[in-house]
Design brief:
heterodimer, A: 114 residues, mainly beta, 7-stranded mixed sheet, 4-stranded antiparallel sheet, B: mainly beta, 6-stranded mixed sheet, 0% helix, 57% strand, globular
Chain lengths: 114, 111
């Protein structure tokens, strides 16, 4: 069974559209994350979230918003998509979010904004 | 915040040779240093990690060393194999629940 899954795997859309990426983990973890990986492979944290706290990287535009219907899911909503949003987005999870434990990554969603 | 630098950005080695990737960090409060391997089209996967109370850790062909005084840590892969070809990321973290990743090293093992 896949530990961290994301859908869709590929997403091609037009500028200005609104889209969502879904993430689910079946590890029983308390904390989930969203990362953005740009064309140079640089991995940057966007959000970390557990049932108590949402931590937002201050450089992330407010067009991006995480939504968690329950502990096992953390979806990423993106409004008014821009060309610069094209990237690979990874969801990850960890047991407690202490910062000193393994993070398990999903397979990524490749977003292309035209 | 933390700043993690990683070198080299690309590395090619002959099969059977060793590969070394180095990272430096800036925040002395960082106390957890994982290494992730990312294969083409996949998400990063943890291969080894080290905590600040340990100077070296080894797992079969992979080892990591940490020099807290100098604020640098390194990944060593011995007897490289073609399946070791991937992008490797170092990261630094503390109890603030945020990983700061290095810029990645693309390793190619030439058969």
């Amino acid at each position: 069974d896949t530990a961290v899954s994301q859908t869709p795997k590929y997403l091609v859309t037009q500028m200005g559209n609104d889209k969502s990426i879904k993430c689910e983990q079946n590890l029983g973890h308390d904390t989930m994350y969203w990362y953005k990986q740009d064309s140079k492979k640089f991995l940057k944290i966007m959000f970390s979230y557990n049932n108590k706290e949402l931590i937002i990287n201050e450089t992330v535009p407010n067009r991006f918003s995480p939504k968690s219907p329950d502990k096992a899911h953390l979806n990423l909503h993106i409004n008014s998509l821009e060309l610069g949003d094209s990237a690979v987005y990874f969801c990850a999870s960890s047991l407690a979010g202490t910062g000193t434990e393994t993070q398990y990554f999903g397979p990524g969603t490749r977003l292309l904004v035209l | 915040g933390e700043n993690v630098e990683q070198h080299p950005s690309t590395l090619s080695v002959q099969e059977g040779d060793s590969a070394v990737i180095k990272c430096t960090y800036s925040d002395s409060a960082s106390n957890y240093f994982p290494w992730y391997k990312q294969e083409l089209g996949k998400g990063p996967q943890l291969i080894i990690d080290i905590r600040s109370n340990v100077g070296e850790k080894k797992d079969q062909r992979i080892a990591v060393t940490l020099n807290k005084t100098a604020k640098h840590f390194s990944l060593h892969i011995t007897e490289t194999q073609p399946e070791d070809s991937a992008v490797y990321f170092c990261a630094a973290s503390n109890t603030g629940n945020q990983f700061y990743f290095g810029t990645g090293t693309s390793l190619t093992v030439i058969p």
